[in-house]
Amino acid sequence: MAMTIAGQAGWIAAFPALLYVMVVFTSPAWVVIFAPIILYSLYRMVNQAGYFPWAFRMRRILRQYPWRVLQDVPRSLSQHPEATDKGAWLEFRNPAAPEQKVPLVFVRRQRAHWWLKRIGHARTKPDLKSQIEPLWFAGDPRFLGVIAAPGRAGKEPRRLHVLFQRPVFDSRRAPESWEADSADIERARRAGALYLDDAVQPFGPGDEGT
Fold this sequence. Notes:
Blueprint (H helix, E strand, L loop, with lengths): L1 H24 L5 H19 L2 H13 L3 E3 L4 E2 L12 E6 L2 E9 L7 H7 L6 H4 L5 E6 L3 E7 L6 E8 L17 H9 L20
Antiparallel strand pairs: 1-5, 2-3, 3-4, 5-6, 6-7
C-alpha cells in the first residue's frame, strides 16, 4: 500500500517538475519533445489525485476485514440479474446466509480497466482470466470490500480495487439489509461505510423468519 501511494504521489510531482525544466532549462526547439510528455504527466496527475481518497478507504477496510483467498468467484461483464446497477460484477456469498449470493458491481470504473479486461467474456483468453484466479477479497460484500489479484507465487495481493454497494456512499439509494445484524453494520461503518446506521434495519434474534 505504501509503495502504491508513493507511486501516485510521484506522478503528481512529475508535472510541475517537467514544466519547470522545460521553461527554465530548454530552448524553444525542445518544446515539441517535452510537450507530449508534460501533457501526459498532467493527465496522470489529475487521474492519480482522485486515487488518494480511495487509497485511504482501502486502509480503513483492510483494518477491519482480513484477506480471504477465494477460488472460482463468479464474474461477468453483463448485468447481474439481482443487481440494480449495470456493469461488470463479482459474486460473493452472504456471510449471514451462505446460500444467498451477493453481487458487487464495478460502480466506480476509474482504474478498473485492468480488472474488466481480465473478467472478460467468452472470447477472452484463459491465461488472461487466470491472472485474477484465485481472487483475494477483504470486506463484507453486503457493504464494501477490497479485491486484489494474486502476486508473485500467490503470496501477496496486488492491483487492489475497492468495490461497494452504491447505497454505502450514496444517501439517495435505499440499501438492502442482506440479513445484516447491528455488529455487521457497525463493522462496515468503521470500515468507511457512510449511510447505514439509519437506513439499514439490522436483523435481531428471531427476525430471520419474518
